[in-house]
Structures are given as C-alpha cells and as structure tokens.
User: What shape does this take?
Amino acid sequence: MLFYLPPGVEYFPHPFYADDDGLLAVGGSLTPGSILSAYRAGIFPWYAEHLPLCWWFTHPRLILRPTDLHISRSMRNVLKRGDFHCSFDEAFHEVIHRCREISRHGQEKTWITQDLIDVFLALHDMGYAHSVEVWQGKHLAGGLYGLAIGKVFYGESMFSNVSNASKTGFIHLVQFLKEEGFKLIDCQQDTPHLRSLGATTISGEMFLKYLRKNIFEEDNPSTWRNK
Assistant: This one.
C-alpha cells in the first residue's frame, strides 16, 4: 500500500505498510521535524532531483552494533601507520557536498538533492547531524555524515578520494559511538563495504524493536567538534 502525504505533514504511516522494495509513502515536506520524525521510525527519504519526494523503510535492514566492529589486518596496518587523521563536525558542509558529487557505480543521479542538503545543514546547526572528516595532510581524503538520535546513529552517505579513507572514518566513528554508549548504527543500504566492517542484516521487526527502545533514550544535540 502506497501512501500520499500532503505538504507540511510531519508524521508517517506505520513502516510495516512499506512494499517489498521498501517504498512507503510519497509527498510531504522536507523539514527538520519531518526528518527527525521519520528517522525515529526507521524511515528515510530517497529520491532524485525533480522527482516526487519518496519515503522508504527498507527491510531486512543492514545495521552495525558498535561492539561488532571488525577491523581487518590490512586496516589495522593502515591505522597503525597513521596514513590519515580524523575530525568530527569540522567540515560538515564540504563532506555532504563531496558525498553528493562523487560518482557511484550503477547510479546515474544523486539522491542527495539541494533540498536534502539544506535540511541536513539545518539539522547540523541544531546538533543532530554530524560529519566525520578524514584528512591526509591538509587534504580532505574522505568522510561521512549522518544523524544521532538517542543512542542510534543513522548513517547517510560517505565518500572517499583515497583508498581506505572512508573505512578509516567509519572505524573512528564506530569507536567514538561505542565510547558514548550508542547501541546501533543504521546503515540503510546493504553493501559489501559495510559488511566487511561487521555490519549484518536484521528483520524489519527486530529493527523497530531497537527503535522503540531508543525512544526512551535522551537526545543530546550538540557539536562533536574536538572529540
């Protein structure tokens, strides 16, 4: 069953109404409120420029528990050599634009539209959206961004211009989230890249159980700079 959301609506149908591909609803508006409401229920926007706004609940869902992070021997050597250094929230604007611009295999158009960038910049200013920057000297070699709500981090996108840069950023993120007591990372899309780092799929039912528990966790919107 596909639902239509009128403009301005910031609530969503139950995620279990999503079809087999994960499509749940069309329409509504992109606002900080609608994004926070959607993500708390495991729903996220995914669409292309000049096409209708679509909301998805993909299932099964790829997730990573911070305690399950897997670092391969080769990545341990990369980290030990100190090829990169990482920061948080120092270049959010540049990271989200790099994620938009990077060429992805099998994807002609980006789903990171200007409207989506604008709302995530607002969420960053509110302390909900965060970035990880991976530097090689003074060069931004890779990065990722996402949302922190309660004790769940919702990964959005990553980019890498240098081999192993995005993996380095992801590993630093997971280690930080573990220290901060986060329970789950929502990876959204199932990729070999994330599976190699310990991500695994769980059912939509199990994913929503995690999110229901997360409702009782306090949000802590803040900057992660200097972490």
